[in-house]
C-alpha cells in the first residue's frame, strides 16, 4: 500500500513539475516573443519607389486691410498610400495633411478655417507668438460647418512652425488621421544668409509620421499594448508618401524636419553616417551651424539641416533608435529600439553648385536668468503636471506681461514625455544642471524630458495680455495631452488678476 501510494505521489509530483516547467516555457516564450515583437527595424527593407510629395504652398491674397489671407478647410478624404487602400483620411484643402503656409515677419495674416468634418475641431499654430484668442487651442473650437478667422501680426524670427488640431481629448485622433501642415516664417536676417531657400527644390519640407495600416489598408488607431505613449506605427510617411525618394539637383539641400507623429520620437541621421549642419531648431536659426551626425526629435519638434551630396550618389535618411530617457523596458515598448529608413536622396549626375553653409547665422540675444521675475516648477508624471490633470475651467497660473520667467521641468516617471509651451519660444538654461548641448542652444518650444533630469528654461512673455483666455502647456505626446497632461496659463497686465476661461463655446 505504502509503495503504491508513494509511487502515486511521485507521479503527481512529476506531473506538477512538468506542468510548471511547461508554463515557465510558455511564459519565457511569450516574453521573448513580446520582447522581439516590440521592436521595428525597416533598415534595407523600404523600397523607395515613390517620389516624395511636396505639400503645395498655400495660395494667399491681400485683403483691404493689407492682411495676407489664407483659406484652410479641414475635410475627410481618401488617399491611396499604396498599401492596400484607399485609406480614409482627413486633410486640409485635400485628402491628407495640408498646404504649407508661408509669411514674413511684420506681416498681418488671417486664416479662414472652415470645419468640413462631422465633429468639432480646432487649428493651433504651433510655435507661433500670438494673442491667446487666436491660438487655436481647446478654447477656440470650430463647429462642423463653421468658419473661424484668426488674425495676427507675425512677430518673431524666421522659423519652421506647423499647424494642427487641438480639440481637448481628441488631438491624437485628429492629427493621426492626417490634419497637420507646415507654417514657414521668413525674415530679412534669414534671407540675407547663403542657405538653400527654393521651396521644393533645395529647401524641402519633411513631415515625418508613423502609421500602422490594418488589413483593409485603413489607419489602425489602436494604441501600443505595453508602451504608454499611444499609437506607434510600423510604416513611415513623409509628407504622406510611403517609401519616398527625393531627386536632389544641388550640392546642398536644406531639409526642414518636422516630427508630426503623435507619439514616436526619432533620431535622424544618414545610413552612411555622414555629418550635416544643423542650422535651425523649433523657433528659428541657431547662432552658428552645428556639425553633427544625429538629431533627435520628439513629437512636435522641428530641425532644419543642410546636407551635402556628391554627384550621382544615393543616400538614405534614417531614424536610429532614439534615447527616450527611460529604462530599457520603456525604451523597448515605446519605440526606443526602433530603426526606420525614412527617405532616399538621389543626387543628379551633375549638381548645381551651392555655397558653403555660413559659419555665423543669426545673433540670439540671451535671456538673463537674473532678470527673471518668477521661477516655477513643473513636475511631470503619470498623466498630470504638478499633480493635477487638465481642467478647461481652471487657470493654473498667471504670468505678468513684459516679464521673464524661469520654468524648471522635471519628469518624475518612467514613461516618455516632452514639454511644449504655447505663445513663446524659450531658451534652455540647463539640462540636469549642465549647459545645454548645441542642439538645445537655439529657440525652442518643445523639449524631450528624461527621467529626473531637470530642464530649466527661460522665456519672455512680452505682450498679448488677456486675463480670461489661457495658453496651454503640455506633453506633446498627443495621447497624454488628450488624457489631461496639460495646463493653462494667462498673461496679465501688472497687478491684474487672472479671470475665468470661457466655458463650452464654439465658433459658429
Ligand atoms: Cu503642437 Cu499645444 O501644441
Ligand atoms: Cu503649440
Ligand atoms: Cu507624455
Q: What is the element layout, followed by pairings?
A:
Layout: H1 2-37, E1 50-51, E2 61-62, E3 68-79, E4 87-92, E5 101-104, E6 108-115, E7 124-126, E8 141-142, E9 147-148, E10 151-153, E11 159-164, H2 171-176, E12 181-186, H3 188-191, E13 203-211, E14 235-238, E15 241-242, E16 244-250, E17 252-259, E18 266-270, E19 276-281, E20 284-292, E21 295-297, E22 302-308, E23 314-320, H4 328-333, E24 340-352, E25 374-381, E26 384-385, E27 397-400, E28 403-411, E29 417-421, E30 427-431, E31 446-449, E32 455-461, E33 466-474, H5 478-482, E34 486-492, E35 506-507
Parallel strand pairs: 1-16, 3-6, 5-12, 8-35, 13-17, 16-24, 25-28, 27-34
Antiparallel strand pairs: 2-3, 3-4, 6-9, 6-10, 7-11, 11-12, 13-14, 14-15, 17-22, 18-21, 18-23, 19-20, 19-22, 23-24, 25-26, 28-32, 29-31, 29-33, 30-32, 33-34
Bound molecules: CU-O-CU linkage (C2O) and copper (II) ion (2 copies).
Residues 124, 126, 420, 422 line the site of one copper (II) ion.
Amino acid at each position: 500500500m505504502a509503495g503504491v501510494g508513494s509511487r502515486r505521489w511521485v507521479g503527481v509530483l512529476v506531473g506538477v513539475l512538468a506542468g510548471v516547467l511547461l508554463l515557465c516555457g510558455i511564459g519565457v516564450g511569450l516574453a521573448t516573443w513580446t520582447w522581439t515583437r516590440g521592436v521595428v527595424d525597416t533598415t534595407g527593407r523600404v523600397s523607395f519607389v515613390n517620389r516624395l510629395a511636396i505639400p503645395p504652398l498655400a495660395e494667399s491674397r491681400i485683403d483691404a486691410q493689407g492682411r495676407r489671407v489664407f483659406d484652410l478647410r479641414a475635410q475627410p478624404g481618401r488617399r491611396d498610400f499604396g498599401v492596400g487602400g484607399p485609406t480614409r483620411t482627413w486633410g486640409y484643402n485635400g485628402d491628407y495633411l495640408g498646404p504649407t503656409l508661408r509669411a514674413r515677419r511684420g506681416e498681418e495674416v488671417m486664416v479662414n478655417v472652415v470645419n468640413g468634418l462631422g465633429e468639432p475641431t480646432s487649428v493651433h499654430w504651433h510655435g507661433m507668438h500670438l494673442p491667446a484668442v487666436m491660438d487655436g487651442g481647446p478654447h477656440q473650437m470650430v463647429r462642423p460647418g463653421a468658419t473661424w478667422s484668426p488674425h495676427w501680426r507675425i512677430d518673431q524670427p524666421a522659423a519652421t512652425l506647423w499647424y494642427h488640431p487641438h480639440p481637448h481629448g481628441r488631438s491624437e485622433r485628429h492629427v493621426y488621421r492626417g490634419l497637420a501642415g507646415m507654417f514657414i516664417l521668413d525674415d530679412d536676417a534669414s534671407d540675407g544668409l547663403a542657405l538653400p531657400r527654393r521651396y521644393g527644390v533645395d529647401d524641402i519640407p519633411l513631415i515625418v509620421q508613423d502609421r500602422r495600416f490594418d488589413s483593409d489598408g485603413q489607419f489602425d488607431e489602436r494604441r501600443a499594448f505595453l508602451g504608454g505613449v499611444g499609437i506607434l506605427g510600423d510604416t513611415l510617411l513623409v509628407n504622406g508618401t510611403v517609401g519616398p525618394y527625393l531627386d536632389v539637383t544641388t550640392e546642398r539641400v536644406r531639409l526642414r524636419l518636422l516630427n508630426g507623429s503623435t507619439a514616436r520620437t526619432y533620431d535622424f541621421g544618414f545610413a552612411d553616417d555622414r555629418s550635416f549642419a544643423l542650422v535651425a531648431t523649433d523657433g528659428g536659426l541657431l547662432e552658428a551651424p552645428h556639425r553633427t551626425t544625429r538629431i533627435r526629435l520628439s513629437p512636435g519638434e522641428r530641425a532644419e539641416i543642410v546636407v551635402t551630396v556628391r554627384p550621382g550618389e544615393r543616400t538614405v535618411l534614417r531614424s536610429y533608435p532614439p534615447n527616450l530617457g527611460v529604462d530599457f523596458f520603456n525604451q523597448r515598448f515605446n519605440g526606443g529600439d526602433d530603426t526606420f529608413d525614412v527617405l532616399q536622396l538621389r543626387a543628379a549626375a551633375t549638381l548645381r553648385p551651392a555655397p558653403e553653409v555660413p559659419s555665423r547665422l543669426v545673433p540670439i540675444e540671451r535671456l538673463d536668468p537674473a532678470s527673471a521675475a518668477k521661477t516655477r516648477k513643473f513636475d511631470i508624471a503619470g498623466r498630470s503636471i504638478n499633480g493635477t490633470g487638465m481642467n478647461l475651467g481652471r487657470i493654473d497660473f498667471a504670468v505678468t506681461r513684459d516679464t521673464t520667467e524661469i520654468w524648471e521641468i522635471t519628469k518624475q516617471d518612467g514613461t516618455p514625455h516632452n514639454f511644449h509651451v504655447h505663445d513663446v519660444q524659450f531658451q534652455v538654461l540647463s539640462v540636469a544642471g549642465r549647459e545645454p548641448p548645441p542642439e538645445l542652444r537655439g529657440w525652442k518650444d518643445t523639449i524631450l524630458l528624461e527621467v529626473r533630469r531637470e530642464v530649466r528654461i527661460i522665456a519672455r512673455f512680452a505682450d498679448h495680455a488677456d486675463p480670461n483666455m489661457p495658453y496651454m502647456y503640455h506633453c506633446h505626446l498627443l495621447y497624454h495631452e488628450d488624457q489631461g497632461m496639460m495646463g493653462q496659463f494667462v498673461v496679465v497686465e501688472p497687478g491684474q488678476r487672472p479671470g475665468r476661461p470661457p466655458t463650452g463655446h464654439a465658433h459658429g
